[in-house]
Design brief:
CATH class of the domain at 43-182: Alpha Beta
Distance between the termini: 65 Å
CATH superfamily of the domain at 43-182: Glutaredoxin
Helix content: 25-40%
Order of helices and strands: HHEHEHEHEEH
CATH architecture of the domain at 43-182: 3-Layer(aba) Sandwich
Radius of gyration: 22 Å
Shape: elongated
Number of helices: 6
CATH topology of the domain at 43-182: Glutaredoxin
Largest sheet: 5 strands, mixed
Strand order of the largest sheet: 3-2-1-4-5
């Protein structure tokens, strides 16, 4: 009988990869399902001063906003948008209606091509008081998950509310208008606002 000890079996760490990948994918899927629920994605900036905007000109005639526009008296929206974003197109009539009612809307054109952004606004109309281009840094500073995303800002430049995804009629009535009222804005009427189907935002193209 041999006294030589039996060799120890080595644990194969590669066996852990499949369950770890599954857990990661499951978590990402759950986050994507919760994306249209604002309560599941609260903004860490709510109640704080809005971050600075450092935007470039999209095209001549489209003036990029500055920090002075963020802190200007009165309520306003900051809307992250892109021409490649389907939900941005879906919510656009709602932004147009709000702009027609006199609400200042600051646009942040997110990871877009200038010519595509211009074509988008020429086709659908320009609801933005001012809008500029963001290569991605401003989106990081504002903590956005994708586009569209909209922030309600008060007259001191403080963020009162964040909404991820397109602005629908139900979102407008339940979240946007109450937050704007808190910021001191009085809506003339919302009876003429078009009904919108619900949807989720879009992630930026690679």
């Amino acid at each position: 009988m041999s006294d030589t000890p039996a060799p120890k079996r080595r644990f194969n760490w590669l066996l852990l990869l499949p369950p770890l990948i599954f857990i990661a994918l499951t978590g990402a899927f759950i986050v994507s399902l919760n994306r249209d629920n604002p309560d599941e994605l609260p903004s860490a900036l709510a109640g704080r001063q809005a971050p600075a905007l450092n935007l470039t000109e999209i095209a001549p005639g489209l003036v990029p906003p500055t920090d002075a526009d963020i802190t200007a008296p009165g309520a306003k929206l900051v809307n992250f948008w892109a021409s490649w974003c389907g939900p941005c197109r879906a919510e656009h009539p709602m932004l147009e209606e709000l702009a027609d009612m006199g609400l200042p809307i600051i646009g942040v054109n997110y990871k877009d091509q200038p010519q595509n952004a211009v074509a988008f606004l020429e086709e659908l109309g320009n609801p933005y008081t001012k809008t500029g281009a963001d290569a991605g840094r401003n989106g990081i500073n504002w903590g956005i998950y994708g586009v569209p995303e909209t922030f309600v800002i008060d007259g001191s430049g403080k963020i009162l509310m964040r909404h991820p995804g397109p602005i629908t009629r139900s979102v407008l009535d339940a979240r946007i208008l109450p937050a704007l009222a808190e910021a001191g804005w009085v809506s003339p009427t919302t009876d003429s606002l078009p009904a919108q189907t619900s949807g989720t935002g879009s992630s930026a193209p690679e």
